[in-house]
């Protein structure tokens, strides 16, 4: 089954076309990115597997036109990979927020679309864009089954004492203010991959997954289920991130608003866009830049990296306590997969958990799957590449196939 995976942002569109023969037998045919949708000049970057990328600049006013352009490139005689749009048998969409409506991936029908729209208040920057992609595809490829895969659904297994905030209960009842968590597809994917590498059943292990990148979150997985995660009502809570502050005393937020005379909306922008690595270092939101600057002696870059390592350690320690131990710790995401020094700094403080860190293995590879502990270690640590698009394609294939059989 050929599955087109779409990830629509407010002004962007990422896509992959995968030929799914089975869950574990698949081929990535092409992938690409459309940027600056709705601006004066947009950029489409398309790459057929095995050949150089193709880049074109043109005005792309909306997501429907963007998807039309993607289909055109997929059909192109030179760098295309299909001869007819009828070869696309299903479309999978990454949807940021499923609220309490969706505990798993779902076939997109009128009711599902309505409930995705109902979650727009919870994810105003993402869900409206995700809906645009769903509706545009329904017009362009009518009758082709569409599936929504939610960042939040993996975390729907959290117990109420983990997901509720100690606010007046009426705010949960009226507005559904609670912890939801994000990066669910990534946490699920690497946990399953790590267990497969060990030859273990996910239900038998206590796992902590660390998705570390421009956005970061850490999840505790017990009996195969997410029981807690660091991101909360929004992706702002938790660790320090590229431009997001992570945990901050709410009293500090109102204090700054009063002192600076700024609106809640502007404060929200500061917390989401001007804080984190960028705000603390004053240099960059990219961990690679900070690592280079720290190596050159920049003290605030060093401070920012120490803050990240400290935050990671606090969550690992807390989740180990919550689960009464940990069997497997996984690093993934851009930082987790590639930043050897960050992995080393964190793991050097985990002797108490039975982590016997393998320095040679850590320094040997970057961006590949690797076991970072010595044989026989009580707690195994891995760095694993994530593949959220594959999770979406797998769920899409499964759900579309089930619908076809009905």
Automatic annotation (TrEMBL):
Q: Report the protein's function.
A: Catalyzes the formation of acetyl phosphate from acetate and ATP. Can also catalyze the reverse reaction.
Q: Which GO terms describe its molecular function?
A: acetate kinase activity; ATP binding; magnesium ion binding
Q: How is the cofactor bound?
A: Mg(2+). Can also accept Mn(2+).
Task: Name the family the entry cites.
Answer: Belongs to the acetokinase family.
Q: Can you name this protein?
A: Acetate kinase
Positions that bind ATP:
14, 211-215, 286-288, 334-338
GO cellular-component term (any) = cytoplasm
The gene that this protein is the product of is ackA
| Known EC number | 2.7.2.1
Among InterPro entries, the record links this protein to: Ac/propionate_kinase (IPR004372), Aliphatic_acid_kin_short-chain (IPR000890), Aliphatic_acid_kinase_CS (IPR023865), ATPase_NBD (IPR043129)
Organism of this sequence: Candidatus Merdivivens pullicola
Name the residues annotated as site: Transition state stabilizer: 183, 244
Reported cofactor(s): Mg(2+); Mn(2+)
Positions with a binding annotation for substrate: 94
